[in-house]
Amino acid sequence: MAEPQVEVRRSKRRKQTVSAYRDGGKVVVLLPARMTRAEEKHWVDEMLGRLRRSETRRKSPARNSDEALMDRCAELSRRYLDGRAVPEGVRWVAPMRTRWASCTPTEGTIRVSRRLREVPSWVLDYVLVHELSHLLVPGHGSDFWEWVNRYPRTERAIGYLEGLTAAADLGSDLADDIEVR
């Protein structure tokens, strides 16, 4: 596969961080102005590699399987919910009209909208922790949010989903379902 066209943008206001994103057929790498050409080359190579790995993970058929969702739920439950949330089943479903995902606590099942197949892993992880928390607390009360907020990127993921909802003009129902407290 041919290397993409790369545009390097330097900024005097940028002090330490380096970031990159795709803009059509090219990759834009944002660097601090003070970096040397050798540092620039290093960071361009590094950021191209990171983008490739991220895109490969997102497109991976394994990530998009129901089995992978179940495995991810097990890991997230261990890490953030003391291993207490154990679903009977987790599966991808056709895009839902008003939700990103849903849980039926009485059956222990979780359904995740296929719309989330393309989001970053940390956003999907938030949605899974949210639904796993419903296995512990069915409603959206403060005790529910205590569990959900154990996931460190909760507020960031909610913001991402709110932006995705607005950008896709999916309606306020989706945004309301991910509201914080």
Count, helices: 6
CATH class term of the largest domain? Alpha Beta
CATH topology of the largest domain: Zincin-like
Overall body shape: elongated
| Portion in beta strands | 15-25%
Number of strands: 6
Widest sheet, order of strands: 1-3-2
Instruction: Specify the helix fraction band.
Output: 40-55%
What distance separates the N and C termini?
46 Å
CATH superfamily name of the largest domain?
A: Metalloproteases ("zincins"), catalytic domain
Rg estimate, integer Å: 19 Å
- What would the average pLDDT be, to the nearest integer? 87
Number of separate domains? 2
What is the SS-derived class?
Answer: alpha/beta
Poorly predicted regions: 172-176
**CATH second-level architecture of the largest domain:** 2-Layer Sandwich
H/E element string? EEEHHEEEHHHH
- Please, what is the oligomeric state? single chain
Pfam families: YgjP-like
InterPro entries: UTP_pyrophosphatase-like, YgjP-like_metallopeptidase
Domain YgjP-like metallopeptidase: 93-151
Protein name: YgjP-like metallopeptidase domain-containing protein
What does this structure look like?
InterPro entries: UTP_pyrophosphatase-like, YgjP-like_metallopeptidase. This is YgjP-like metallopeptidase domain-containing protein. By secondary structure, the protein is an alpha/beta fold. It has 2 domains: 5-59, no CATH class; 66-177, Zincin-like. 45% of the residues lie in helices and 18% in strands. It is built from 6 helices and 6 strands; from the N terminus they run βββααβββαααα. The protein has helices at residues 37-59, 66-80, 121-136, 142-148, 154-168, 172-177, and strands spanning 5-11, 19-23, 26-32, 89-93, 101-104, 109-113. The strands form 2 sheets. A 3-stranded mixed sheet has the order 1-3-2, with helices on one face. A 3-stranded mixed sheet has the order 4-6-5. Strand 2 (19-23) and strand 3 (26-32) form a beta hairpin. The longest helix is centred in the N-terminal third of the chain and has 23 residues, at 37-59. The radius of gyration is 19 Å and the shape is elongated.
